[in-house]
Amino acid sequence: MRVFLPLMLFCLPTTFSLSAQEKPGCMDPQATNYESSANVNDGSCIYPTTNGSLEIKGTLPGELNEISGMIHINGKLYALNDGGNSNELFVVDTLTRNIEKTITLEGATNVDWEDLTTDGTYIYIGDFGNNAHGNRTDLKIYRVPVQSIAAIEGTTGTVPAGDIDVIHFSYEDQTDFTSQPGNHTAFDCEAVLYDNGKLHLFTKNWIGNTTSHYTVPAEPGDYVAEKRGSFDTGGVLVTSATKANNKIVILLGYIVGGAYPCSIWMISGFSEMDQLFTDGNKRKIDIGSAGSIGQVESITAVKPTRVLISNEYTYREVEIPPLAPFVFEVQQSLYGLNTDAWTPQYVLPLGIANFNSRLSNSQVVLTWEYSDQEFAYFEVEAAGRVDGTYRSIGKIYRTGNTSIFSFTDPEPLVSDQRFYRIRIVSPEGKYVYSKTLAVRDSSSTQFNLTVAPNPFKDKLDISFYSDKRQTVRFSISDLQGRTVALKQLQCTPGRYSYIIDGLQGLSQGVYFLKTQTAENTFVRKLVR
Asked: How confident is the model over 26-71, as pLDDT tens digits?
């Protein structure tokens, strides 16, 4: 449903077991009550009034005049319209804002779609808008495989009903289901995000100043949503949510009345998403009024310190006594907002992606991706055993604006295997380690695919030999043949070790890893 919603950023709460060296307090230097000696964030930070300015990217197509949710995946926006519209997803180019694909979800009904999120394998679509009468008993979230959309060629297509799962839920504290007047319920919802196997819902409370936080499992089934907490937003009605990284959540919304001021709440520094409102720092950033930027309905993070925001087509008559009533009209548009000025450095990520290796003529070449600009250097460490003693074998410093890095081990690999990890060091001297990568040697020039561990929990370590320049594709499917993970490598001659991670959200059961080259297909049975 169309409504004016505030943009809100929230800090997630953190629970710690304190030792004599730990001191809880406000760790953000931008807060008015900053404690320089604090080393455990406790959500106590207080911030001055803050204003942000959106940069206009341009008008969105007319097909998205009631855009209610969007997510950013691999440089594209996946967007939807709210209740009463079609059961379609739109794939939008972020630069041209043109619709590249229109995807129909067979068997799904748009009662009141409001927001969507992703875990990288599935897209979750929230059909949980409830502002009409506040008494819906059919609240649901559709789960759609990303691969089912990616496999569609051309500008239109349909995801079969058999590929789509449904998550049904109700709120644990809603006992009254009598019909209410429009926009008069505490159980409307327009915001959802995924984290660690759960879907986190944030309500749009029409009869109070708070938003409530609920969770349901990100698996098909019928659930009672567990209430995790609530937060006084100052009357801001939450319309969308996004996770900028594992320590930053941003809520978007607006306040009903006057010029309908729009805001974001930035919540940061929490240890667990379930404790978001308990110990997360909460900072409000005002971003304008609906009269200038429209009714803001959707937010999605494209990096830890940048979000995209959209509004639906807005036409409204506003009274601000003693001024005469005035009418404003704003086309559906896409905006950008950099949040680095308000992001505490201690919550920015120090993690790498796509850490892999290539072995050629006994030389190990490591490659990885790291997009954050804020680091001093990488230190590569190696060991003969995964639990052995690691030693430094080299440092890598940034040159230019590259986000892809490589390092060649100066010592040839003469043993069966060697283990590598990368220490990422920040300008302040703080550091974290990457995951450990195992590199194995083989005198054979056959493909020689090995997969470990099996059974697996959250990742797979895949090792193989490529005898030429070629594309190698990996896909993981369940017993029903549904693809749950898909990766691809461009290889040159040499032995490779590659990690597929992020598998902790999969259900327990049997899966199949299919590895394909131009000439061969290799299948391994896996158990989780």
From this structure: 988 899 999 878 778 899 999 999 999 999 999 999 999 999 999 9
- Distance from C-alpha of 511 to C-alpha of 237, rounded to nearest angstrom: 42
For the whole model, what pTM was predicted?
0.67
The better pLDDT of the pair 17, 478 is held by 478
Calculate the alpha carbon distances from 27 to 244, 376, 459 in Å.
Answer: 19, 21, 33
Q: Which amino acid is at 149?
A: I
Of 454, 464, 516, 452, which is closest to residue 356 (Cα–Cα)?
A: 464
Question: What value, to the nearest 5°, has the Cα angle with vertex 62 and ends 56 and 68?
Answer: 70
Q: Which two tokens stand for residue 311?
A: 């509004």
- Look up residue 77 and give its amino acid: L
> Residue 122: beta bridge partners?
145
Order of strands across the sheet that contains 295-303? 55-59, 333-338, 306-312, 295-303
Between residues 225 and 2, which one has the greater pLDDT? 225
Measured between alpha carbons, how far is 404 from 390 in angstroms, rounded to an integer? 24
Task: Report CA torsion sign: 230, 232, 236, 241.
Answer: negative
Task: Name which of 246, 148, 253 is nearest 194 in CA terms.
Answer: 246
CA–CA separation, 85 vs 74, rounded Å? 26
Contact 169, 141 (CB under 8 A): yes
CA atoms of 141 and 193, how far apart (whole Å): 12
- Which two structure tokens, joined as six digits, stand for 437? 């990568």
Amino acid at 454: N
Say yes or no to pLDDT of 5 above 70: no
Of the candidates 44, 22, 46, 21, the one whose C-alpha atom is nearest the C-alpha of residue 32 is: 46
Provide, rounded to the nearest whole percent, the portion of the chain with pLDDT above 70: 91
Host H or E run for residue 293: helix 290-293
Q: Are 69 and 126 in contact (CB under 8 A)?
A: yes
501 has pLDDT over 80: yes
How far is residue 252's CA from residue 285's CA, in Å, rounded to a whole number?
Answer: 10
Nearest partner of 7 among 271, 330, 335, judged by Cα: 335
* CB within 8 Å of 387: residues ≥ 6 apart: none
Per-residue pLDDT at 235 exceeds 90: yes
Q: What is the pLDDT of residues 276-309, one digit of tens each?
A: 999 999 999 999 999 899 999 999 999 888 999 9
CA dihedral 214, 219, 224, 225 (to 10 degrees): 0
Task: Using alpha carbons, select from 410, 409, 436 the residue that is nearest to residue 421.
Answer: 436
Token look-up 């679509």 returns 125
Q: Which two tokens stand for residue 389?
A: 């003693």
30: tokens are 């931008």
What beta strand segments (E) does 119-184 contain? 122-127, 140-145, 156-159, 165-171
